[in-house]
Design goal:
Structural class: alpha/beta
Strand order of the largest sheet: 3-2-1-4-5
Number of helices: 3
Length: 112
């Protein structure tokens, strides 16, 4: 089982997180200048056994793509041609709502 790399793509800086080889735990990897991202990925992916890349695609509250979609989409197109098992695009609005709901459920049943 290979690692999963998550990418929070930004115009100036990009956040990276990665799982352990068994995909049980994920943690922050680094925040790097976006203009260095492709070189970083070309080196990091093969050296660390990454099999899946997850890229966040932010959406507006009405469900339409945000302005940042215009520069994330070409990036995803470039890395899909690499020898990665899969490149997933996650729609961030839905994830954020799910995270908030989970947080409130956690608060109800656990002492924080």
């Amino acid at each position: 089982m290979g690692r999963i790399l998550a990418i929070d793509y930004g115009r100036k800086r990009t956040g990276l997180a990665v799982t352990d080889p068994l995909q049980l735990i994920a943690g922050a990897l680094d925040t790097i200048p976006t203009h260095t991202l492709m070189d970083f990925l070309r080196k990091y992916l093969p050296e660390n056994g990454v099999e899946t890349v997850v890229v966040g695609l932010p959406r507006q509250m009405d469900g339409s793509f945000s302005e940042s979609y215009t520069y994330i989409r070409p990036f995803v197109g470039k890395i899909k041609d690499w020898s990665i098992e899969s490149v997933l695009r996650l729609y961030c609005r839905a994830i954020s709502i799910a995270a908030i709901k989970t947080f409130f459920v956690f608060q109800l049943f656990c002492e924080v």
